Amino acid sequence: MKIASSKGYSGKLQVPARNEGVLIYPPAERFDDVLAGNMQHQEESYLFDGQFEDYDFQGRRFRNLADQCREEILRAAVTYTSSYRNLSGDRARWAPSSPLIFAGHQPDLFHPGVWAKNFAMGAFAASRGGVAINLLIDADVPKSTSLKVPTGSPIAPVLERIALDDVPLAVPYEDWEVMDENLFRSFGSRVTAAIKPLVADPSIGMYWQKVLERSRSEKHVGLCLAQARHQIEGEWGLQTLELPQSHCCETEAFRWFTAHMFAQLPRLHEIYNASVTQYRQSHHMRSATHPVPNLLEENGWLEAPYWIWDTENPCRRRLMCRLRGDELLLADGVGLEIPLALTPDGDAGTAVNQLADISKRGIRIRPRALMTTMFVRLLCSDVFVHGVGGGKYDQVTNSIMHQFFGIKPPEYMVLSGTLKLSLSQSRSLASSLRSIKRELRDLKFNPDRFLRHAFTDARSQKWWDWIESKDHWIRTPKNSANAHTRHREISRSNEALQSFVAERSQQLYLQQKTIMAQLHADTILSARDYAFCLFSESQLMHYMLDILPKAL
Questions:
Q1: What is the pTM of this model?
Q2: Angle of helix 252-263 relative to helix 62-81, nearest 10 degrees?
Q3: How many Å apart are CA 460 and CA 523, to the nearest integer?
Q4: Within 10 A of 75 (CB to CB), how many other CB atoms are there?
């Protein structure tokens, strides 16, 4: 099986090390080329290896399905966003024929480098008469239900985990409702108290007030977090739309895409695993879970790159499929089995309707990461803006699309940034630490050098005999007969001289301890992955509205 190359992006995708840095790849000046190229591919119906305009999603041609998808997704995004933001002044420019710029992330408290994607895609869309839509990946499970917060003092900072809620980590954002009302409501004040010694005016207070306001009408925690953040973006002049992945999955276009993927699962399964395996080999990865696990095959069942769960048991499970006569069985491995009227060559219309009925019963069928971006890049967007991780791993998606559909995959952009709570001193501190370690080593193995330079009357000192003894043995040529004695006598001299350099050694050890403590503090204070709400509003606005636009 021929696999499309996954090289090209990975060597260039490194998060910026410096504070207020921005990574954009391909470079921002190439955005119009990427947009024009992708839109041209759409106009040509992705002609590549064959007549892709004739590609049949088992009852829907590609062009018709793409048009339907863009219309449904845009309408859903407008409907969802208008439920908590006033969009009356923006509706005129929102049309499915406009350039659609997408990004996506979990609805959590991400760091400013992730947030920068929203401002970048908003700027790209606004300057080109397009629409920016941020997809909230609420099918994912929270990595944590607490927030990492630096506290203590600038000299001796420590990290503290502050709980947001008490909910099982296996519950996806889509079904995460507040379990501990006291924890949730007091979260903002507890985070403020912790961060205050280090950040005088953290934005968490302003932000959490908006979260609590949203919680009066929105019961899902992830969406409360996202809506409050999106309201702030609107106040800062950013005109974008947002849409939960779960809402996207309720469109007919998505169900048609999914039904086709299920019907063609044996072929998709083979291509998916081959592409993942080649990516691991190309990037010398040993982990079986990176970039994603291979799909399983068990006793005639094939794993689909989707999740399944239900509202009664909101814990994600693998979705397994097996063809049985003229129907396809879906199973979750814990007792749930769902038949679909679906075959590899038949019309998918009935299965699409069945998927809608399944959803009404509270059963969630959601795509995994690679399938999510495949759907959006193929049928919804003109340009997708990834972060660094997504940009690397979506090379696998490129390979799958190339194999499965026979197309040249649409190009995507990668953007990430770095904003730190405080400026790093690590470079100068590390240099000082290296100098101290070198001198300590020299005092251990060459104490005579220090003593010669430290005392103008070195020859009159009581340790001079040891230096002369060492000099004698160093001048003595080494041979097999004297090697052991020579080494022993030089070592004896060095050991005897240690008491005379002890004061200097002690000074250096104290300096080393101080610098190591400073480095530890610096490591805590200069990390780039703190949640955006820990920063001051002025620092965030400066980065998003002043620094970032200059890079675009």
A1: 0.87
A2: 130
A3: 48
A4: 13
Query: Using CA atoms, how far apart are residues 458 and 331, in angstroms rounded to an integer?
Result: 86
Q: How far is CA 339 from CA 107, 187, 344, 535, 536, in A?
A: 32, 44, 15, 50, 53
Highest mean predicted confidence (pLDDT) among 15-24, 52-61, 82-91, 456-465: 15-24
Q: H or E stretch including 246?
A: helix 245-248
Q: Tokens at residue 179, please?
A: 């379990």
pLDDT (tens digit per residue) in 173-194: 999 999 999 999 999 999 999 9
How many CB atoms are located within 10 Å of the residue 328 CB? 22
Residues 133-146: tens digit of each pLDDT: 999 999 999 999 99
Distance CA(401)–CA(376), nearest Å, equals: 12
Three-state DSSP state, 331 = strand
**Mapping DSSP to helix (H, G, I), strand (E, B) and coil, where does residue 103 land?**
strand
Q: Please give the Cα distance from 401 to 48 (Å, whole number).
A: 12
Q: Distance of CA 232 to CAs 115, 133, 147, 550, Å?
A: 12, 16, 20, 21
Alpha-carbon torsion (105, 108, 110, 115), positive or negative? positive
Q: For residue 549, how many C-alpha atoms fall within 13 Å in the half-sphere facing its CB?
A: 11
Instruction: Measure the CA–CA gap between 495 and 500, rounded to whole angstroms.
Output: 10
Token pair recorded at residue 523: 């490591």
Place of tokens 């230096």: 467
Cβ-proximal residues to 328 (8 Å cutoff; 6+ apart), any chain: 262, 263, 321, 322, 339, 340, 342, 343, 351
CA 432 to CA 228: how far, in whole Å?
45
Gap between the Cα atoms of 536 and 546, Å rounded: 15
CB atoms within 10 A of CB 45: 17
HEC per residue, 266-314: HHHHHHHHHHHHHHHHHCCCCCCCCCCCCCCEECCEEEEEEEEEECCEE
CB 394 within 8 A of CB 412: yes
Q: Which residue has the tokens 């990574």?
A: 23
Is residue 359 within 8 Å of 344, Cβ to Cβ? no
- Find out whether 418 and 21 touch, Cβ atoms under 8 Å: yes
How far, in Å, CA of 527 to CA of 422, rounded? 9
